[in-house]
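Thread title: Can someone regenerate the structure for this chain?

I was given the following input by a collaborator and told the matching structure tokens would be attached. They weren't. Posting the sequence so someone can regenerate them.
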Amino acid sequence: MTLTASRIDFDLDKKRVTVVVGDKSLTSNLAKVIEAHNGVARIIEMKQASNVLRACKESNYVILIQSYIKHSISQILINSPHKSYSIAMATTAGQLAVEKALYRARYKLNVTDNDQIQYPFLVNN
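Best answer:
Regenerated them for you:
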């Protein structure tokens, strides 16, 4: 899949976004999704919890790609008492799933997606 255009209207204001995945080779377009929303991307593979925690502490927003990471690590990142970042989880590495997670992290909404969240979708021309 290639990134054609943003589908949700929001601006990350040049904030740092760390995307945590199990395998970077499966996430080639994620940096483009973040950059399309004026964010600075950092994609990291989850090898050791301590390294992931250190990387996330330097971020404003953390996005977890659920289908590629271990539940125990995601819980550590979500429940960390010292976290300075806003966090959300995308079920897949697909563009729309990541955009929705970015939006939720940006506005400190639910970690996971649900039907109650009203995303400001852009109208296609």
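The radius of gyration is 13 Å.
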